[in-house]
């Protein structure tokens, strides 16, 4: 079998957005379909050509999302607050996903796991791999918040004749995988999801770290946390915390320059087409306790949860505050040019966010609604003719309570 890949994956990981997307459609997240033998299937599988989320959701669950939290979080059979015991301190959180992939191989449930290592000589550049041993899965621990062509590894799966695999990936990747699932000839597929928003290229990530952190070269983990701050964990174990409001987005050229157009046109932060999704957004935030939340979405997801359950500690949810006034104010901010406030104002805003802002599940709802609104505005501003094909119906339903404010600010209806 031949491959259409021009450059090896470890070189692709280092490319800028301009180099990465040269010759690609305007909306491309480099999920990997276009880089391999499945390229002819791009039009039928790409979420940015034709978003089939609700069609695939109906096939997966026998129904679509109901009103309420499902509109934001996706369909699930159960939602758990979890962490590994013992914690894997090399992981981004506690090692839930890497342990799950390793256990699948150890127990012979799969023959390979598609996951993401770091490219040689880097900490953050993603290198998709087909892991065949538990050790290879565990070596993928740690976040690589950059675009990664994980689906290109399906060429290796097909060439190797593997029939039972697990896939760990993001929403755009999972959409394409589900759209092609019946054509891949697999006997067993476990789909493990990462919530994902605002990935970028490796050079742009390094640019962000240089602007946001006092010591960018020593950052080993970074995450946008539930206390309205970015946490940078450094090599010596210290944690540097930077308020969201203090980030100099203009110094990066703004969000639209920093993030790929595809990521700004994504409406599946919670990765709703997986068997099981593991994230952190709605989990409690006691310092250093590393709680996460897990969405068990399908029968196969229940199997994965039971496989991992002996290694888990279960926690409880919390929530507080009211996101809705802030979301309505955010709509006005989307319409006006962003201006970085003076330092005293930023300090006050950060205090207000932490003391009065939404917490727990309400924080998660707030963040997801902000992403839906921001991305809807982006699509309408720059790719309006695509709206009917790439914005799923649940977006308008989830944001319906903002319709009056949206129409006042943008002088057009929220719904198409």
UniProtKB/TrEMBL annotation:
Any idea what this protein is called? Coenzyme F420 hydrogenase
One function term, GO molecular function aspect? oxidoreductase activity, acting on CH or CH2 groups, with an iron-sulfur protein as acceptor
**Stretches assigned to the Coenzyme F420 hydrogenase/dehydrogenase beta subunit N-terminal domain:** 88-154
One Pfam family assigned to this protein is: FrhB_FdhB_N
Q: Which InterPro entries match?
A: Co_F420_Hydgase/DH_bsu_N, FRHB/FDHB/HCAR-like, FrhB_FdhB_C
The highest taxon in the source lineage is Bacteria
The residue ranges of the Coenzyme F420 hydrogenase/dehydrogenase beta subunit C-terminal domain are 163-308
């Amino acid at each position: 079998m031949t491959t259409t890949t021009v450059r090896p994956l470890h070189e692709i990981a280092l490319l800028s957005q301009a180099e990465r997307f040269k010759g690609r459609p305007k909306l491309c997240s480099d999920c990997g379909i276009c880089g391999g033998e499945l390229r002819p299937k791009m039009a039928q599988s790409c979420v940015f050509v034709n978003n089939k989320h609700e069609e695939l959701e109906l096939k997966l669950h026998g129904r679509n999302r109901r009103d309420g939290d499902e509109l934001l979080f996706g369909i699930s059979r159960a939602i758990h607050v979890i962490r590994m015991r013992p914690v894997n301190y090399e992981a981004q959180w506690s090692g839930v996903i890497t342990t799950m992939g390793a256990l699948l191989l150890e127990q012979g449930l799969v023959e390979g796991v598609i996951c993401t290592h770091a490219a040689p000589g880097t900490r953050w550049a993603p290198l998709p791999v087909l892991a065949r041993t538990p050790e290879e899965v565990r070596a993928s621990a740690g976040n690589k918040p950059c675009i990664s062509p994980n689906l290109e590894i399906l060429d290796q799966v097909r060439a190797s004749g593997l029939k039972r695999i697990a896939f760990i990936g993001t929403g755009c990747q999972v959409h394409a995988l589900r759209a092609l699932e019946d054509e891949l000839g697999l006997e067993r597929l476990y789909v493990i999801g990462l919530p994902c928003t605002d990935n970028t290229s490796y050079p742009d990530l390094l640019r962000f770290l240089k602007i946001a952190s006092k010591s960018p070269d020593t950052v080993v983990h970074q995450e946008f946390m539930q206390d309205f701050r970015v946490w940078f964990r450094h090599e010596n174990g210290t944690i540097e915390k930077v308020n969201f409001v203090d980030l100099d987005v203009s110094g990066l050229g703004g969000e639209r320059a920093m993030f790929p157009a595809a990521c700004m046109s994504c409406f599946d932060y919670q990765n709703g087409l997986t068997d099981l999704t593991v994230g952190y957004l709605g989990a409690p935030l006691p310092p250093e306790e590393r709680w996460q939340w897990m969405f068990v979405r399908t029968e196969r997801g229940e199997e994965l949860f039971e496989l991992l359950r002996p290694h888990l500690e279960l926690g409880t949810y919390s929530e507080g505050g009211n996101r809705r006034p802030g979301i309505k104010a955010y709509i006005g901010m989307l319409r006006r040019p962003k201006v970085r406030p003076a330092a005293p104002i930023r300090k006050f805003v950060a205090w207000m966010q932490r003391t009065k802002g939404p917490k727990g599940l309400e924080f998660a709802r707030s963040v997801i609604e902000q992403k839906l609104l921001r991305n809807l505005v982006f699509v309408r501003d720059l790719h309006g003719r695509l709206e009917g094909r790439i914005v799923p119906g649940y977006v308008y339903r989830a944001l319906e309570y903002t319709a009056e404010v949206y129409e006042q600010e943008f002088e057009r209806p929220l719904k198409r």
